[in-house]
From TrEMBL:
<dbReference type="GO" id="GO:0016491">
    <property type="term" value="F:oxidoreductase activity"/>
</dbReference>
<protein>
    <submittedName>
        <fullName>Short-chain dehydrogenase/reductase SDR</fullName>
    </submittedName>
</protein>
<dbReference type="InterPro" id="IPR036291">
    <property type="entry name" value="NAD(P)-bd_dom_sf"/>
</dbReference>
<comment type="similarity">
    <text>Belongs to the short-chain dehydrogenases/reductases (SDR) family.</text>
</comment>
<keyword id="KW-0560">Oxidoreductase</keyword>
<keyword id="KW-0520">NAD</keyword>
<dbReference type="InterPro" id="IPR002347">
    <property type="entry name" value="SDR_fam"/>
</dbReference>
<feature type="domain" description="Ketoreductase">
    <location>
        <begin position="6"/>
        <end position="183"/>
    </location>
</feature>
<dbReference type="Pfam" id="PF13561">
    <property type="entry name" value="adh_short_C2"/>
</dbReference>
<dbReference type="InterPro" id="IPR020904">
    <property type="entry name" value="Sc_DH/Rdtase_CS"/>
</dbReference>
<dbReference type="InterPro" id="IPR057326">
    <property type="entry name" value="KR_dom"/>
</dbReference>
């Protein structure tokens, strides 16, 4: 097992991608804390992998308490995955200041707070020639933009820049920092996008929209949470010991093509 003896904390750990990440890390031998606002998360009640930690990533007191719990139980943190995030489907003209601030509070400030307060535990893990791995969640929307996702795109661009800065600052301490930048992944957030104004659906049925999204991808499909979990697992492992400061795009080739030239 690639992660035997390692300790991991996954924010958004009860969401679609978060659950897949927790399950994969556990299969590889890690002790996993699944941090989220509630036990059900975006998928609802039911058996879910990992030890649940109630956590609002935008609340510094809750972040400090969560890290204290990990410190008391494990004394270190080898892997931090900042997967918590929200999406607002509006242009800036229709985005309220409250919505804008909430987007940044969860997607950017949440990443800042969990990373900041995890660093002492990650330094404790980065001993004896091994490294600790901090994995943020950006998006291909941090490079190019979907319509109607202005605040979301802005937050992901900020996460990309923060990832590079953290990699430079904490690499000498044995802490690797990377970001995964997904494209279209089959999650509750994606299904909400299909039914929202941001999809540009123009009254089309959800099945037609889903097929249209598949068809614009070179691989003719969108991804699954397990696809993301596989990359997280590699970045978390010692096999990725020299990987840091990178933005890993996982989008089925979508951003590689010139859209207007697509046949």
């Amino acid at each position: 097992m690639m992660l035997e003896g390692k300790v991991a904390l996954v924010t958004g750990g009860r969401g679609g991608i978060g659950r897949a990440i927790c399950a994969r890390l556990m299969r590889e031998g890690a002790t996993v804390y699944a941090a989220d606002l509630n036990e059900g998360g975006s998928l609802g009640a039911g058996t879910a992998p990992g030890q649940f930690l109630r956590l609002d990533v935008a609340d510094e007191a809750e972040v400090i308490a969560a890290m204290a719990e990990v410190r008391e139980a494990a004394g270190k943190l080898d892997i931090l995955v900042n997967a918590a995030g929200i999406e607002i489907e509006k242009t800036i003209e229709h985005t309220t200041l409250e919505e804008w601030n909430r987007s940044f509070a969860v997607n950017v400030t949440g990443t800042f707070l969990t990373s900041k307060h995890a660093l002492p535990l990650m330094r404790a893990a980065a001993q004896g020639g091994t490294t600790a791995s901090l994995i943020n969640f950006g998006s291909y929307d941090g490079f190019i933009a979907d319509p109607g996702l202005a605040a979301y795109c802005a937050t992901k661009g900020a996460v990309h820049a923060l990832t590079r800065a953290m990699a430079c600052d904490h690499g000498p301490e044995g802490i690797r920092v990377n970001a995964i930048c997904p494209g279209y992944i089959d999650t509750p957030m994606l299904q909400s996008f299909f039914t929202g104004d941001g999809s540009g659906g123009g009254g089309k049925g959800i099945d037609e929209l889903q097929q249209a999204v598949r068809d614009v991808h070179p691989m003719r499909s969108y991804g699954t949470p397990d696809d993301i979990a596989n990359l997280v697992n590699w970045l978390a492992s010692d096999e990725a010991r020299y990987a840091s400061g990178q933005l890993w795009v996982l989008d089925g080739g979508l951003s590689a093509q010139v859209q207007q030239m697509k046949l």
